[in-house]
């Protein structure tokens, strides 16, 4: 696991986008196509803003969506489909974008997406770490065993409070209690994982995920087991790591 520290989250996002673009281009040169996973949320703003500017032949890139709420329409301000369309898919001409349809039958949607992603080797997975240590919407305790690519998951209170705190919903009651999420094992199948985590509110989760035990109670701790995980932190999110290292 490689940890990269930056003074500001703008520099963090730029570096993560640049590294991802380099890996995508390497895959395009190696096999003529590439497949990536994109995360959403406030932690990905800077990275996505830079990634859409990267010199990549997006027409040869397939994209999979990491997670989505169950039961909200694509027009909802918190819809991750809406987020990804506006911040990425409408700005670059990707070959195929496999969205998670939160309005479809959840179990059938998991099966549909699972069939699709099994056809691909994922070259780059962009992910984040939640305030409760979640990876995608795999809240603690996460399922570290299932090989199913996509799951229906229950969102815990801390996760739902994070979504409220980031301004996506008007009240805690409005935050859905369930979502469709890519599984932990599916994320780990990616050739390289690029994890961007800004802000002081993530500092405790970052500390536990990167320096604590690998346990389902801290889902993102599983990233320690992947040989090609690159972590991008700003000074605030890395504060507890920095203080312990002097």
Task: Write the topology of this structure.
Elements: E1 2-6, H1 9-31, E2 34-38, H2 45-51, E3 61-65, E4 67-69, H3 80-89, E5 96-98, H4 106-117, E6 124-127, E7 150-154, H5 157-165, E8 178-182, H6 184-188, E9 192-197, H7 203-211, E10 229-234, H8 239-245
Parallel strand pairs: 1-10, 2-3, 2-6, 3-5, 6-9, 9-10
Antiparallel strand pairs: 4-8, 7-8
Helix pairs in contact: 1-2
Walk me through this protein's architecture.
With 246 residues, this protein is α/β, with parallel strands linked by helices. It has a single domain (2-245), classed as Rossmann fold (3-Layer(aba) Sandwich), CATH 3.40.50.1360. 33% of the residues lie in helices and 19% in strands. It is built from 8 helices and 10 strands. It has helices spanning 9-31, 45-51, 80-89, 106-117, 157-165, 184-188, 203-211, 239-245; strands spanning 2-6, 34-38, 61-65, 67-69, 96-98, 124-127, 150-154, 178-182, 192-197, 229-234. The strands form 2 sheets. The chain has a 7-stranded parallel sheet with strand order 1-10-9-6-2-3-5, with helices on both faces. Strands 4-8-7 form a 3-stranded antiparallel sheet. β2 (34-38), α2 and β3 form a beta-alpha-beta unit. α1 (9-31) crosses α2. The longest helix has 23 residues, at 9-31. The chain is globular and about 45 Å long.
């Amino acid at each position: 696991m490689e940890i990269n520290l930056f003074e500001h989250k703008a520099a963090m996002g730029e570096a993560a986008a640049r590294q991802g673009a380099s890996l995508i281009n390497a895959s395009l040169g190696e096999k003529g196509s590439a497949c990536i996973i994109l995360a959403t949320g406030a932690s990905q703003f800077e990275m996505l803003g830079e990634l859409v500017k990267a010199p990549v032949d997006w027409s040869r890139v397939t994209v999979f969506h990491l997670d989505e709420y169950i039961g909200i329409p694509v027009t909802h301000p918190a819809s991750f489909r809406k987020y990804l369309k506006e911040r990425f898919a409408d700005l670059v001409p990707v070959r195929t974008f496999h969205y998670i349809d939160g309005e479809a039958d959840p179990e059938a949607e998991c099966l549909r997406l699972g069939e699709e992603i099994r056809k691909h080797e994922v070259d780059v997975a962009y992910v984040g770490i939640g305030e409760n240590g979640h990876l995608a919407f795999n809240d603690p305790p996460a399922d570290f065993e299932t090989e199913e690519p996509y799951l229906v998951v229950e969102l815990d209170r801390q996760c739902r409070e994070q979504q409220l705190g980031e301004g996506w919903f008007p009240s805690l009651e409005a935050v859905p209690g369930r979502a469709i999420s890519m599984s932990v094992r599916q994320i780990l199948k990616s050739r390289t994982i690029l994890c961007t985590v800004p802000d002081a509110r993530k500092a405790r989760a970052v500390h536990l995920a990167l320096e604590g035990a690998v346990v389902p109670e801290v889902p993102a701790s599983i990233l320690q087991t992947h040989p090609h995980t690159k972590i991008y932190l700003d000074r605030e999110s890395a504060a507890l790591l920095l203080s312990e290292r002097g």
